[in-house]
Design a protein that fits this description.
The chain is of the alpha/beta class. It has helices spanning 3-9, 24-37, 48-64, 102-106, 129-132, 150-157, 171-183, 212-228, 251-261, 280-288, 291-297, 305-320, 332-347, and strands spanning 12-16, 41-45, 72-78, 86-89, 139-142, 161-165, 190-195, 233-238, 270-273, 300-303.
Length: 351
C-alpha cells in the first residue's frame, strides 16, 4: 500500500529511528528490517551519515524483495528546545569508584558502557538516566541545526517528508523553521508537525498540561502557515514522548490525546505517537467504538522506543560478531518476525 493510501485508510505505520540517534549500524539494521515488515515512513535525524545508513538498509531490503515499495524518508527538525533533540553527558572521571551505575542499567539504548561516559552515537535523549544518577552528575545537552544550514542540508539529502517538533507558544519560531524548509526547494510529500499537550516540553521534568482547545488553537496556527506554502500536513500527537518501551500503560497517553483532539484539530491526518506500543491499537479500538471507528479516528501510528528495543538484542549480538544484523542469515529473520509482530496489526485489512 502506498503511504498516501495508508494515511487515508488508517493503516499508516512509521518507524522512528530517533531525532538524536546516530548509531549508524543500528539504524541500517532497523531500516532494512522494518522496511521489509511494511512500514510506510522512516523518521531520522537530519544528518548526512544517518541518512546514508538508512539508505543502505533500504537497499538491502530491496535486494531481499525487489518488488518492495520503499518507505518515505522523513527528517526531523525542531523549532526550539525539545527532549528529542538532546544527549545525556557526564564525566566518568567524577564517578565514585563504588557507584553501582544505575544510569547504565536503566539506559534503553545501552549507551553507557562500563567505566565510560555516554556514547554520543547511541544516546537518543530519553532522559531516563538523569534522575537515576545518585550523585546528580548527568546533564542533558541540547542540540539543533543552525538556520543557515537547514536549506542546503535538506536539498542535499532530499527527504520525502520533513517533521518539525514544536511546542505551545512557539508559533513564530515554527514559522522561521518552516521558511528554512521552504528555502530548500524540495517538493515534500508531507510536512509533519509533532506536538504534545505539555507546555514548554523542552525543559526538564513534567510541565503543566494544556487543554485540548488550547492545543488545537496552536495547531490551527501552524496549519495556516503550512497552507500558505501549500504543504500537506500530518499531525503527530505526542502523548508521552519516548516511553513506548516502558510498559503497556503508556499507550493511554497517546490515545487519550488523539481522541481529545480529533474533533478540534485542523484538516489533515492524525497520527499516534509518544508512548505507542502493542497495546495502542486494541486500546484505540476499545475507546473509539471498534475497528472501523479506530481507522477513522487515527491515520496510523509511529513506533519509536519499542521498535528499537525489540531488535536491540539481535543488533548487539551481530555487533559482537563484527557484522551488521542484515548480514547474519541466522539472526535477521528473527528480527523481521519481531518487527512484523509490531507492525502487522496496523497493516491488516480487517476493519
Amino acid at each position: 500500500m502506498r503511504p498516501e493510501q495508508a494515511l487515508v485508510s488508517g493503516r499508516w505505520v512509521k518507524l522512528i529511528c530517533g531525532a538524536s540517534n546516530q548509531d549508524l549500524a543500528a539504524i541500517e539494521d532497523l531500516c532494512g528490517l522494518y522496511a521489509l515488515a511494511g512500514v510506510h515512513c522512516i523518521d531520522l535525524a537530519a544528518d548526512e551519515a544517518v541518512v546514508a545508513a538508512a539508505r543502505r538498509g533500504l537497499s538491502w531490503a530491496r535486494d531481499q524483495r525487489p518488488q518492495l515499495r520503499p518507505p518515505w524518508l522523513m527528517l526531523s527538525l525542531s523549532d526550539g528546545e525539545d527532549p528529542h533533540f538532546r544527549k545525556a553527558w557526564f564525566d566518568p572521571g567524577r564517578c565514585p569508584p563504588d557507584c553501582p551505575r544505575p544510569c547504565a542499567r536503566i539506559c534503553p539504548a545501552e549507551a553507557i558502557p562500563a567505566g565510560a561516559g555516554v556514547s554520543r552515537e547511541r544516546c537518543y535523549g530519553c532522559g531516563r538516566c538523569l534522575p537515576a544518577c545518585p550523585h546528580g552528575l548527568i546533564e542533558a545537552r541540547s542540540h539543533g541545526l543552525d538556520a543557515a544550514a537547514v536549506p542546503g542540508l535538506l536539498a542535499r539529502l532530499r527527504p520525502d517528508a520533513v517533521e518539525i517538533h514544536t511546542s505551545l507558544g512557539r508559533g513564530e519560531a515554527f514559522g522561521r523553521r518552516l521558511e528554512q524548509v521552504v528555502a530548500s526547494g524540495l517538493p515534500l510529500r508531507r510536512l509533519a508537525v509533532s506536538c504534545g499537550a505539555e507546555a514548554g516540553a523542552g525543559a526538564e521534568g513534567r510541565r503543566p498540561t494544556v487543554s485540548p482547545q488550547d492545543l488545537a488553537s496552536e495547531l490551527w496556527q501552524r496549519f495556516a502557515l503550512l497552507r500558505s506554502h501549500r504543504f500537506l500536513p500530518l499531525w503527530q500527537l505526542d502523548g508521552r514522548p519516548m516511553s513506548g518501551d516502558v510498559g503497556d500503560g503508556t499507550a493511554h497517553a497517546a490515545v487519550n490525546l488523539l481522541l481529545a483532539l480529533r474533533e478540534l484539530a485542523p484538516p489533515g491526518p492524525l497520527q499516534l505517537a509518544g508512548g505507542t506500543n502493542a497495546r495502542s491499537l486494541p486500546l484505540l479500538r476499545q475507546r473509539s467504538g471498534g475497528p472501523r471507528a479506530a481507522r477513522s479516528a487515527a491515520a496510523g501510528v509511529a513506533f519509536g522506543g519499542l521498535a528499537r528495543r525489540l531488535l536491540a538484542p539481535l543488533v548487539l549480538e551481530a555487533e559482537r560478531r563484527g557484522r551488521r544484523l542484515l548480514d547474519e542469515p541466522a539472526l535477521w529473520p528473527q528480527g523481521l518476525a519481531l518487527a512484523q509482530g509490531l507492525v502487522s496489526p496496523w497493516l491488516a485489512a480487517d476493519g
